[in-house]
Specification:
With 152 residues, the protein is an alpha+beta fold. The protein is 44% helix and 24% strand. It has helices spanning 20-25, 49-60, 67-77, 95-101, 121-151, and strands spanning 5-9, 15-17, 32-37, 44-47, 81-84, 90-92, 106-111, 116-120.
Length: 152
């Protein structure tokens, strides 16, 4: 499971050391991670074999020729990169993805259970604040709904 948020610095070759627990969570058919541009924000999304299989299964739920399936195949499979770990546990991020998301120096690695995201550090601070607000509002609405169900 990918947990926590860790800030790391990219080196001059766009390499980053993934935390040991991230590397362990990614263990699968090859020694590395799958990564592509996230649908949820201006960041990269990655994970191990289970993460990849989740997207394959989601795509397979849609009939061949469905526009959503085609969009998912193009975005996920067409945009997917396999990033192998080197002997130091580093992955090298593709230059095109670094440029697209402004990954130039410090990044935030954000564990999200079966996946993780890689954000520019400052962009993640803004995203995290928005997510906390949404979580508060959503939890408040859920609790109100639960209280309403109890009184009905």
């Amino acid at each position: 499971m990918f947990l926590s948020t860790v800030e790391k610095q990219l080196d001059a070759k766009r390499r980053i050391v993934l935390p040991q627990d991230f590397r362990a969570a990614a263990a699968g058919t090859f020694d590395g991670v799958y990564c592509f541009a996230s649908f949820e924000g201006e960041c990269l999304e990655g994970g191990g074999q289970a993460f990849f299989d989740t997207y394959l299964n989601l795509i397979d739920e849609l009939p061949f020729g469905d526009p959503t399936r085609s969009a998912m195949e193009t975005s996920v499979l067409g945009g997917m990169v396999k990033l192998a770990f080197d002997t130091a546990g580093r992955i090298t991020l593709p230059e095109t993805l670094c440029e697209e998301f402004g990954l130039t120096d410090w990044v935030a690695l954000v564990g999200l259970r079966s996946r993780f995201q890689i954000w520019p550090r400052e962009a993640f601070k803004t995203h995290r604040a928005r997510q906390r607000d949404l979580a508060r509002e959503g939890l408040h609405a859920l609790r109100a709904q639960q209280r309403g169900a109890l009184t009905s």
